[in-house]
Amino acid sequence: MPPITVYLILIFTLFIPQNPTSADQSFISILINQNGLNFVKNLLITKAISSLIPTPLSQIEKVVRIPVIGKVRIVLSDIMLYRVNVGSSDVRPGISGISIAGSDVTSGMSVNWHYSYGSWVGPITISDNGTAAIEIPLLPPQCSASDWWVAKGNVGSAGSIFLFLGSPEGTLTLSNSEDSFGLIVFFGKMANNNGKFSRHVILHDVSGMEIGSLLSLDYEEGSMKLSVMECNCLIHYISVHLKGGASWLYQGIVDAFKDEIISAVEKAFIKKLKSEVSKLASVLQTLPKQIPVVNKVSLNVTFVNNPFLSDTSLGFEINGLFIDSKSNTVQYHNHLQPPVSCSDPSKMIGFALDEAVFESAFTFYYNAMFMHWIVDKVPEQNLLNTAGWRFIIPQLYKKYPNADMNLNISLSEPPLVQISSRNIAATVFADLIIDVLKTDETIPVICISLLMSGTGTVQIIGNNLSGHVKLDGFTMSLKWSKIGTLHMLLIQPMIRTMIKTVLLPYANAKLGIGFPLPIINGFMLQNAEIISTQSRITVCSDVSYEESFESRRIRIYTS
């Protein structure tokens, strides 16, 4: 699966239709909280910046009229965007879609310039060339102050109103141009747009460049369709630093090329942002609808219904049942009630798994004959020889003296799981057959039915939800015997020993592997906590990201 364009994906809790089939219901809900959305947003910005730098821009050429000199042909070439810094950013889900915005964005470009014009004294062409640095700065080029920092507002057109706060130092000078302020409110006092104030000034949201996009995320035939509804880039100011050239050249370049440079950079950012969203959309469309678990058993991760969007979270519901290679015909009752609830709201992501998920897992493991074991090695190996049973089942030893044995263990029906706020209770039904091994055959001798009750715990290992069970108690009965009646009370201690030393360790080894939670490749759960409530288990976790391509870690932008 492609590595990073993989950010925005995971998520949430929806409404359930009346009388649905299991295939239409959700049994796993996923919720990405604000911290998780910020993490994904930062990851997306990191990727966008890394793919944007360096970006060449097209050559710009113009003939401009310079006072006294006349017509001058000016060419800007080898324009290279080489630096982008994002000061702050935000992501907000809502009814209209998912908005991602970046502000206080600065960037730097390198450029070669060349100009030429004809001399009025004869057929002589005067030319020069050099380099320049073009910056998208935080501060407006008309303004200067000894100490600036930026906070809220909107600068850029005459007639705007701005509130300035600060300490009585420094100077702010506002020029009388269409890009300067129209009216300034300064602690209740007013001044026109060419006033001067001896103050440190706080401007806000008016600096650098602003980038924003509005994305839609819709359910489409078991997948999620991501599309761009709006995408904008607004540059407030640029500054040009020439190396060499005549004194008139600076203003000539600014006057002639300002709009073209701004337009070219804005288009480059918009194109790159749309490209990254398009890559992510492709990944979402190609996400697998099943996660293989073992052999022909898989976890159904088909999306169900549209995502759920609130002011601070984004959520999805997926089917979440275990299925085999054939269609799933088993019906389950859904206990899940949205939303996913985490005791620690700072956790990035939450998974809520309905009891039916575990029921479906045990059902398909049972149907696929994965709950059938032949045991020929145990810690107390004498238990696998009739001599070890001669005082407990003397007729077994008498009929088969010093014969080796196998334990043939199989579940007679799928285990039952009940999840509550107190514990996770499991009930297991099994048949234990004692086989005697002859030279050329295996002889089933005794079959004992077991009903075992236990208490389970779950934990996160990697991205897998794994389990462990301990024995609370068991009952047993003789199902059939080829060697006559048995004294079950005498056998019970031996059976208990075999359950604790053979069956439980084997079962816990399998449960310890667990099954994968539906999380995209490259993301890893961290510091997970597990909450059990009535009929469901909730996993709340932070996440980290490691780019799988060439096993590189990427440094994630933070705002």
What does this structure look like?
By secondary structure, the protein is an alpha+beta fold. Among the domains are: 48-284, Bactericidal permeability-increasing protein, domain 1 (Super Roll); 371-515, Bactericidal permeability-increasing protein, domain 2 (Super Roll). The protein contains five helices and 30 strands. The protein has helices spanning 34-52, 249-286, 355-367, 394-399, 488-513; strands spanning 28-32, 55-57, 60-66, 70-94, 97-118, 125-136, 149-151, 161-163, 172-173, 183-186, 189-191, 196-197, 202-204, 209-220, 223-235, 239-243, 290-294, 297-300, 308-309, 314-318, 322-323, 349-354, 372-375, 405-419, 424-437, 442-461, 464-481, 515-516, 523-533, 536-545. The strands form eight sheets. Strands 2, 3, 4, 5, 6, 14, 15 and 16 form an eight-stranded antiparallel sheet that branches. A six-stranded antiparallel sheet has the order 23-24-25-26-27-28. Strands 1-22-30-29 form a four-stranded antiparallel sheet. The radius of gyration is 36 Å and the shape is rod-shaped. The chain starts with 27 loop residues before the first strand and ends in a 14-residue tail after the last strand. 33% of the residues are buried. The model is unreliable at 1-22, 141-206 and 549-559 (pLDDT under 50).
